[in-house]
Specification:
This protein is of the alpha/beta class. About 35% of the residues lie in helices and about 25% in strands. Helix 12 packs parallel to helix 13. The radius of gyration is 32 Å and the shape is elongated.
Length: about 400
Amino acid sequence: MGKKHNAGGKGGHGKSNKVMKYLIKADLKVNGNVQRKDIIGAIMGQTEGLLGEDLELRKLQRTARIGHVDVEVKSSAGKVNGEILIPSSMDNVETAIIASSLETIDRIGPCAAKIVVTEIQDVRSTKVNAVIDRAKDLLLEMVNSGDAATKTVIEEVRSVLTVGKAKNFHGLTCGPNVESSDSLILVEGRNDVRNLLNFGIKNAISCDGAGTIKQELIDLAAAKDTVTLAIDGDRGGEMLFRQLNEIMKIDFVAQAPVGQEWELLPQKTVTKCLQQKVEVEKFAAKLPEDEPSEDPDAWLDETETEAPAEVHEYFDHIADLKKNNAVFVNVDGTVSDAVGPSKLAAAADDADGAVAIVINGAVSDRILDIASEAAIETVVGTKEGKGFSKRDDVKAWLSEKHA
């Protein structure tokens, strides 16, 4: 087994605090038995005077522009093979010159030798790539767990993500990590997978809409710790949920805002929807038992029909609010501090996890806009306000008791 030898110029240890930028790697072959000190001596001696005083290796080591020369060798059948490693804090041009000078060495002691530079590694680039890869993993874990930190951190990390390439799993379009990841995101179509890949999410797989679900997909989901179904914000998405929930493992459901599709969602909305995923039982309980009408004009006016139980719970918060103040109800049932009308828009933008706005006042067109922009699907108030109109993406409920 080979051994490593460190060689440095006089005083080199005292100046080792310079940051090394590059690492020269070279293969060594010697037709005979030589010792490591012979190899180091040849490197230092045969390059001396070759490139001028400014690029003399011993001088460069004393000023820490070149680090310790490492040599790893092994002997076999009277010959020596090994690798030479030389770190450099010089620029890329000077480093390349030093590297090329090694290849002029043709003898070590009395033996013929050959040195070939195999690589000049950019140490900083290697570190940056390691940071990027780790940041991707951390971001994916945050999104899948729903425990993401602040938006600022998410956006900073997301800025270095690169687009992955879609793969194929038994005929289904998927991200490259669907088999290795502990979690899985099910989406409807191949374009949904590609959109998530754009944001560095690599564990999504298409189930090919509402067609026949492949057994391989069912088996894949069964082997995962968590499975999240990401459906569009329409009837088709809910139909897909009903179908898949009967035949395969689903732990959470993340639904796009009403009328929107995953393949077209921007980064911010994708992250928010995944953070606000709900347990499959809770999502199933929210779905209406009766199939909606096929007539697009025959939608119900929620302000005139009986509100569901969860909305009646929202009504109870109105009595605790000052006039025209509002609170946000989160997906876990917790309630935010009250905010006044002037701060409502900013608070909604920061209210990650909010599913409803409850206001002790009129529900105006502006309030519905605020809810829509923040992907909050429910607004509860006391009466219709200025410009109030029916929305596809936000449901408005009015409490007669508090009007």
